[in-house]
Amino acid sequence: SQKIEQNSEALNIQEGKTATLTCNYTNYSPAYLQWYRQDPGRGPVFLLLIRENEKEKRKERLKVTFDTTLKQSLFHITASQPADSATYLCALDDSSYKLIFGSGTRLLVRP
Amino acid sequence: DAGVIQSPRHEVTEMGQEVTLRCKPISGHDYLFWYRQTMMRGLELLIYFNNNVPIDDSGMPEDRFSAKMPNASFSTLKIQPSEPRDSAVYFCASSPQRGGGTGELFFGEGSRLTVL
User: Fold this and answer.
1) Mean pLDDT of all residues in chain A?
2) Which of residues 61-80 of A touch B (CB under 8 A)?
3) Which alpha helices (H) appear in chain B, and where do they start and end?
4) Which is nearest to B62 in space by CA: B82, B76, B48, B43?
5) pLDDT greater at residue A68 or residue B111
6) pLDDT value for B102
7) What does the alpha-carbon distance between residue B55 and residue B1 come to, in Å, rounded to a whole number?
8) B7-12: long-range contacts at Cβ-Cβ below 8 A with a sequence spacing of 24 or more?
9) Which residues of B make CB contacts under 8 Å with A?
């Protein structure tokens, strides 16, 4: 079955810098990949979706890349702000069309 | 739209008791998903429905867990009898699609279950 790996260690960066989070997967390449944000005590909130034939997707200060050769997606937040502090989850479909999630990476942006 | 609504937000119960979690999906969404989140295992898909019909329940951990969707606006997840290892946050999510393609998932705020 598909396995998703996200860095379990928190990423701690200075306000204004670019945050880069990594999502690696094993086995087959999914048709698409999604990123979600989760704040403490809240449900995940959808941010971006990228398809296998798309190399890059942007939305305001967010950018996602998808490298099917490396089996990796990178999630970037430019000009980071303390309000960006949260846990970011990577999600993709498994072979039976179910959306499965990585364990998430916690981002802390210091003012 | 109010989004996906879950109740209760918090539930504390004793081992052996029955627990029922409730979910109201977003109107017009054909797919409903139940996930469980723990520190150790992250977000796990338990079961999902399409047009009120259970499609895949392979994530349901044991026969103690059951889920129903009697109509398009209501679903329940029941644990009977509950055990301490069932302690987790249970999320309900809905989607106008399967959760694939362009279908993002809309999550509720979750039900935090503690079994003593």
Assistant:
1) 91
2) none
3) none
4) B82
5) B111
6) 54
7) 26
8) B7/B111, B8/B111, B9/B109, B9/B110, B9/B111, B9/B112, B10/B111, B10/B112, B10/B114, B11/B111, B11/B112, B11/B113, B11/B114, B12/B114, B12/B116
9) 4, 33, 35, 42-43, 45, 48, 56, 59, 91, 93, 98-102, 104-110
Phi, psi of B30 (to 5 degrees): -90, -15
What pLDDT band is residue A52 in, cutting at 50, 70 and 90? Answer: confident
Q: Which two tokens stand for residue B94?
A: 């809905």
- Give the 3-state secondary structure of residue A83: helix
Lowest mean pLDDT among A28-42, A77-91, B88-102: B88-102
pLDDT, block means (10 residues), chain B with 116 residues: 92 97 95 94 93 92 95 97 97 79 83 98
3-state secondary structure of B19: strand
Question: Which of B33, B56, B110 faces A96 most closely, judged by CB atoms?
Answer: B56
User: Which has the closest alpha carbon to A49: B73, B105, B67, B102?
Assistant: B102
A97, B100: Cβ pair inside 8 Å?
Answer: yes
